[in-house]
């Protein structure tokens, strides 16, 4: 279905993207496109991040030890360690 409003697609700030990704991976391991789908579904289709936003964010979260990537069947999976689960729960809602 096409967009009803002309203009650029909605964007989210970097900090918000990190929280959205942490929320998407908090329950279980996800691949990048599953994370994109989860965020799109949770936003009611209003926001669907691109792979160019998700993959660098996943790498940053791994570098900061908020996520741990693993490779299985040639696909990288990103389960969140307990530190990320605690942080996402303690972050106040806006």
Short description:
Helix 1 crosses helix 2, helix 1 crosses helix 3 and helix 2 packs across helix 3. A two-stranded antiparallel sheet has the order 1-2. Helix content is 48%, strand content 6%.
Give structural notes:
The structure is a single chain. By secondary structure, this protein is mainly alpha-helical. It has a single domain, classed as Orthogonal Bundle (Arc Repressor Mutant, subunit A), CATH 1.10.10. The protein is built from 4 helices and 2 strands, in the order αααββα. The chain has helices at residues 14-25, 32-42, 51-63, 82-90, and strands at residues 70-72, 75-77. Strands 1-2 form a two-stranded antiparallel sheet. α1 (14-25) crosses α3. The radius of gyration is 14 Å and the shape is globular. It starts with 13 loop residues before the first helix and ends with a helix.
Secondary structure layout:
Blueprint: H1 14-25, H2 32-42, H3 51-63, E1 70-72, E2 75-77, H4 82-90
Antiparallel strand pairs: 1-2
Helix pairs in contact: 1-2, 1-3, 2-3
Summary tags:
single chain, 94 residues, mainly alpha, Arc Repressor Mutant, subunit A, two-stranded antiparallel sheet, 4 helices, 2 strands
- Any idea what the CATH architecture is? Orthogonal Bundle
Helix content: 40-55%
Note the gap between the termini.
30 Å
Kindly provide the name of the CATH class: Mainly Alpha
Q: Give the biggest sheet.
A: 2 strands, antiparallel
Give helix and strand order, one letter per element, not per position.
HHHEEH
Helix-and-strand structural type? mainly alpha
Unreliable stretches (pLDDT < 50, length at least 5) are none
- What would the principal axes of the Cα set say about the shape? globular
**Numbering strands along the chain, what is their spatial order in the largest sheet?**
1-2
């Amino acid at each position: 279905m096409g967009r009803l409003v002309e203009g650029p697609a909605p964007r989210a700030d970097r900090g918000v993207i990190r929280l959205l990704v942490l929320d998407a991976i908090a329950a279980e391991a996800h691949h990048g496109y599953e994370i994109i789908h989860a965020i799109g579904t949770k936003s009611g289709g209003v926001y669907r991040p691109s792979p160019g936003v998700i993959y660098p964010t996943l790498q940053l979260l791994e570098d900061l030890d908020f996520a741990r990537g693993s490779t299985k069947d040639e696909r990288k999976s990103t389960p969140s360690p307990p530190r990320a689960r605690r942080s996402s729960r303690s972050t106040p809602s806006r």
